Amino acid sequence: MLDVLLYLFEHYVEEGREVPHDEAILKTVLKDAGFPQSEINKAFVWLEDLTQQRGEEHEAQTPHSSFRIYSRQEHSKLNIECRGYLMSLECAGIIGAQTRELIIERAMALEPDELDLDRFKLIIMMVLANQTGEEHLQDWIEALIFDNASGRLH
Q: With a cut of 70, which residues of the chain have pLDDT below it?
């Protein structure tokens, strides 16, 4: 499913192409690209759930001293690199607590038992790209995923 999401991002968002408004057309394009229908359907459900979060009020992106305790399931799915990376984004003020929770929730909605850092960065990118008010992060988001940036802001 994550490969379907990556394909959509690379072929539409990154290239600046308009995404077809007709879901059936987009699903046909994905099927023609070789993706199984079940994975396409899962990707659309994942995106719909993410889009529903867009309507929530935008939070202030300021660093703070809260501490996040992960559940056993979250701990199993998000390895130490993923958790550390997420904490570094929050400490740098790039994301706030609400965005952090949305990222974790979207990661937990995926099937793989454990996510590696590269796949986790893709989830972060999609969540941030979907958030209103995050347009100023677009260049950083692309560097984060496609240039293997370390996440450090210089």
A: 12-17, 19, 53-66, 112, 132-154
Q: Is 154 helix (H, G, I), strand (E, B) or coil?
A: coil
Q: Which residues pair with 78 in a beta bridge?
A: 115
Least Cα distance to 85 among 30, 125, 33 occurs for: 125
Sorted by where each begins, the domain ranges of the chain are 1-55, 59-154
Give pTM, 2 decimals: 0.72
